[in-house]
User: Fold these one by one.
Assistant:
Number 1:
Amino acid sequence: MRLIEEAASEHEDLTMEDVQDLVRKKDEIEEQIKAYYDVLEDQGVGIEGPLVDAEGFPRADVNLYQIRTARNQIACLQNDHKAIMAEIEEALHRLHAQEKAKRGEAVAHDDPMEAELSLPSPFARVDAVTAGSPAHNAGLRVGDEVIEFGSVNSNNFQTLQNVASVVQHSEGKALRVVVVRGGQRSPMTLTPQRWSGRGLLGCNIVPNPR
């Protein structure tokens, strides 16, 4: 968890860019694993196929060195993948905690009435919700304007990929979502999960013009 530890040692806040960097590393590891699986498939042995013939001699019809190397690399990369997934999860939780702390500080220093009346600018809008989906069950409705989605908020939002990253790495975990509906702040809890329809949410979110 080097990236997180470096940020902590330098007393710097994690950013969504840090999380996206971890996701890119995860994607690179997955590509490498796939490449080594392709090697095994080309050799026709898979991850556990025998490397000796019926008489117990090393097979002469496959490249034994290439297969052993690929299997070893897959094992190592799978450990790396497990570690970086844990690092991504920790980074997302820490990012959420940072934003929560900042919100608490802002409300503590601002006039309570002013804090209640002033709403952040929505960064996205819900333009479709499928009945029976996780989004529908959480209370999301068409026309809701999103000001907070997990660790993503109006201050750090860049693209919808920010939201997609949070969803992808929060399957089965409750996310705090805050929308503006009828001029009022409306918080809810949304848990991305598999359901009978497509995706993990069952809704479509589009960015608001900046």
Number 2:
Amino acid sequence: MTTKANFPAAAGSVVVPYGHVVGNEKWRGSEIAQRLQGKIKLIFEDGLGLVDFHLSNRICILYISEADLVAGDDFKRRLVRFRNANSLGGIVIVERTQISDQYFIAVQKLVVLELGMVLLPVANQGEASQLITQLVREQSKDHNSNPFLRKQCSQLLEASVFRTVQRIPGVGKTKALLLLQQFGSIHRLCNASVEELELVVGQTVAQQIHTFLCF
């Protein structure tokens, strides 16, 4: 499903009943909506702006389909507009298929490194519905956190960041772990100087990292 580019950036105040998911009206009748029905309580609303699904009053999902990736850069502008206009925690679900795989690394860099959002790849809408169901059920275990576990979100973010850092030229699992331990957050890593990076990974790799992140 291709996202239109003329949605307002902010979704406004959305109240999500506990244990429910609020979906953008454009998803009514879609495969993902049909698969969610009966597993979670799904309600639809107009006026969600750039957001596809609200898991809570603070956490939402933006869905990037294979068609979005192939169509061009509209999805990138959508993500940037969302991040600039919202304080909500955004989880980006991306369809990673044989056709869209060539675009994935660039999307990963944008979402995780530049925008600081959670990125979760799926093969199709059916897999996405299973993921959303899992997230909703996980947060429902903690009645003191309405309704999404911050720990779960943090774990997802850390895993996505770790995988992305490993993809930087010259960086493997060991160096990725050292870098994240040293700088503490992906934003600090992006803002680190070559000299600061050298203290952790040496001159050659430090330059490769700096070139990659500043590209």
Number 3:
Amino acid sequence: MPTTKEYLLNERMSSPSKRRDMDVMKLMMSDYTVEPINDGINEFNVEFHGPKESLYEGGVWKIHVELPDAYPYKSPSIGFLNKIYHPNVDEMSGSVCLDVINQSWSPMFDLLNVFEVFLPQLLLYPNPSDPLNGDAASLMMKDKKQYEEKVKEYCERYAKKENITNALSEDSNEDISEEDVSDAERISSDDNVAGDADP
């Protein structure tokens, strides 16, 4: 007969959708601000603060998280939405190069691990030998002081609370205006078709 711990672990692993729900709820009930996208739990943004005693301390980033259907058996997709200067984060896309997420993910990990362990470790211990941002990696290896200044400059320019709030507002405005343009084009093309049918 299984122990209570084994039973709970098996129950937790028995259904990916139950596990996904539970992991997202744990993240929402923690100290992180979680903003669902499209009222679902497969895609959301998380407010992430730079770890204490690091170059990134005081910085605030909006992290985009997408959970695949096979989560937790397949790793989440993680990306920074506002800019960060780091050898293992692509400056343009925000993609993260982190072995534990990209290669050695295990269903034993959960979303809290990502935000409480994996991302802080990434920021505390960059790996310039496996870069997504070649400029940051090169600068880190050649001139550590200048690299540190650049990290702090990016934190000042792009990683403040108002940056992530403004970025979301701009995204919302862009979405609305794109929809308005699409509606206007559709109405305009409908009018042209109706106009062509008249003699």
